[in-house]
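Weekly structure sync, notes
Attendees: PL, DS, HV (note-taker this week)

Item 1: Winged helix DNA-binding domain-containing protein
DS walked through the input record. Source organism listed as Kribbella sandramycini. Sequence as pasted into the shared doc:
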Amino acid sequence: MRRIGVEERRARIGRRHRLAASAHAADAVEAAAAMVALHATDPATVHLSIAARVPGSDVAATERALYDDRALIRLLGMRRTVFVVPTGFAPIVQAACADDIATKQRRLLVKHLTEAGVAADAESCGVWLRAVEESTATALALRGSATAQELSADEPRLRTRLSMADGKPYAAAPYVTSRVLFQLAVDGRIVRGRPVGTWLSSQHQWSPAEAWLAGGLGAKPTAEEARVTLARSWLTAFGPGTATDLQWWAGWTAGQTKKALIAVEAVAVDLDGQVGYVLPGDEEPEVPVEPWVAFLPSLDPTPMGWKERDWYVGAHKSKLFDSTGNIGSTVWADGRIIGAWGQPESGAVRYQLLTDVGRETEALIEAEAARWTAWLAGVRVTPRFRSPLEKQISAQKS
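Item 1 (cont.): predicted structure, written out as tokens:
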């Protein structure tokens, strides 16, 4: 079993994740494809992740790819998370991950509807849900695109309240609107279009999938075929990684993960005592790239590509992740995290290093901070998931 050590794993990141200058992507679609998928729970992440990998990229170029050319698309996928993927890859994510999520979420929503007394029993609640879904889909088709608020005006049953955690201090009675739209989205029937407001807005117009794309998301492979394709894409971008890494990243079961690794004929390698996997023919050392640094946003796909992160995070996890395991904004050098960045009130990009990197690397970091300050042009991005170190940096006086 060939050994692939930490230094070699780090060396792969610069080229494969398009972060070294000699490996930058040509456009937003190429950047997204290189990473398999871009996290989109925080709308700013998509734009910043692309700008970190595409020289000269700006918000307008990413918006064109998303909303005009529609070469990129937002959808629910791995781990019930919103991602942006190349449009042609959407059927793979749908079949490999979203369809299973849709089944589980429908069952859960029917349970919550039953507990709220929306209908006499679970079967009746299931019928009620289907009726509301169809009515909502029809209203959306008639409008062409609409916000959640507009759809709830067309279909009053979307204002039905659930009863969550009844009797607990955190009890809530939310409208069913977001849950129904989530279900339609994870079923692949509707898609998120343009944001309502600026590129930092998390509210989007909804459109029928068939109206957004000719033929909707397109023909799907079988779930097993799609998992094989997704595993191969993940290994291309993130290999070597462990079975645990892939299982976590994809949100699969252990059995699904094992079958996918067998199907791609993954080659076992030694990751300093752990068994990792690469694609056949990918066992050889990576061709070195020049020294590089990168400022990556919260939830960027690079740090979120593996479950086991010590080899690139080091001893600084408590400063870089929030309490639920979401990574904040980070500063990278040659395949490892060396600090974090944030924006005080002035909007200028500031950083704090967690390790000594030497004068040459620090000069690269200074230049990158200045580039990001110019790119953001006074727009202050507050991550949805904030790490302790990012909060500390952003609270500083400018």
